[in-house]
Design a protein that fits this description.
The protein has about 100 residues and is an alpha+beta fold. The protein is built from two helices and five strands; from the N terminus they run βββββαα. About 20% of the residues lie in helices and about 30% in strands.
């Protein structure tokens, strides 16, 4: 697994039942990662990129500003707003 620098630590996105964080990966790209929220209010110890199957990296960005914009949207927009803004780009899934 590549070394990561955590730029924004785990931030609750209660409306999506998950936590999100922003990292800078070893390859220089910026990634928004998610972890499911547990009933206890914490999160799992595993983090995943948003989008499709294993190896899919839709929520990894070349520019930090793009990653930060997505991170901010993920932690503030509703499910419907995320779907409207990112659904066609496969950056959000319908429940």
């Amino acid at each position: 697994m590549p070394t990561k620098e955590i730029l924004e630590s785990e931030t609750e996105a209660e409306q999506h039942d998950l936590f999100a964080r922003l990292t800078r990966r070893e390859d220089g790209r910026y990634a928004v990662e998610i972890s499911p929220m547990l009933q206890s209010g914490g999160h799992e110890d595993q983090w995943h990129l948003v989008g499709g199957s294993v190896g899919y990296d839709a929520s990894a960005f070349e520019a930090e500003t793009d990653a930060r914009d997505y991170f901010e949207d993920l932690t503030s927009l509703s499910h419907e707003e995320m779907w409207e803004k990112y659904g066609e780009r496969r950056l959000w899934a319908n429940r």
